[in-house]
Amino acid sequence: MREIAEYPNSFGPLGPGSERIETDRYTLCMGPGKTWNTVQRQHFGADEIDEVLEEVRALLRERGRPRTQWEVGSSAEPPDLVERLLERGLVPDKEPYAVALVLTHAPEPPPPEIVARRVETFEEYEAANAVQWEAFDMPAGEVEESRVLLPKLWRETVNVTHAAWLDGEIVAAGTSAPTEHGLLLYGGATLPRARGRGAYRAVLQARWEEAERNGTPALITQGGSMSRPILERLGFERVGEIHILMDRFDETDE
Q1: Rounded to an integer, what distance in angstroms lies between the CA atom of residue 113 and that of residue 125?
Q2: Which of 13, 103, 106, 252 is 20 to 30 Å from the Cα of 238, by its Cα?
Q3: What domains can you pick out in the chain, each with its CATH number?
Q4: What is the pLDDT of residues 119-140, one digit of tens each?
Q5: Which residues, including other chains, have CB under 8 Å from residue 57's CB and lie 6 or more apart?
Q6: Measured between alpha carbons, how far is 244 from 97 in angstroms, rounded to an integer?
Q7: Which residues of the chain have pLDDT under 50?
Q8: pTM score > 0.70 for this model?
């Protein structure tokens, strides 16, 4: 389960507009739009780094994608891949480090005044995404790209979105993907003004219940600087770590 937690995008179901290229040396995951790309599951020799780097860039250029993350987990080869990529001009991402986490028992219940469940309408889905955009301080250009794609994603995605309501407003949200190993968690976020009141725990509880209904009672995720302490307090166990770099090879200043 460690590799799944380190590289969830390599194992989760593909959504609309997404593509995944799997090779013996890496997996390249591309989301809808042009801006979300990531390289995972790196296994190659130190003498192959320049070749792999240019191969990945060529694949992205063919698709009009000017940048990509590299998520380098504990199981990556060569073991010093992060240092070697930094030497070649990649830079730490805005959130440069995360921990691979797994939960295999029910989490602590949330406060009773907070309601969390699956979103049921497009309006709820849109509001849940807006929470994620604000909480993660997403750049305006990426927000606009995501907003345009929302109707298609709502109609076609296999992922599930849960949200938490406080005083009638959606204040926390999270996306998840069902797999045979458990529920892969993405994008759990709470609006800054609502933090510390249990909304994140409520979304987590709703996702756990989803995993139980699926017959796969486990939650698998990555925790960054903000979510990691909360998740570990709620019982998630560390199974690996991930260093996140950004390769901006074709971007302009426009």
Answers
A1: 21
A2: 13
A3: 2-99+242-248 (3.40.630), 115-217 (3.40.630.30)
A4: 999 999 999 999 999 999 999 9
A5: 247, 249, 250
A6: 6
A7: 253-254
A8: yes
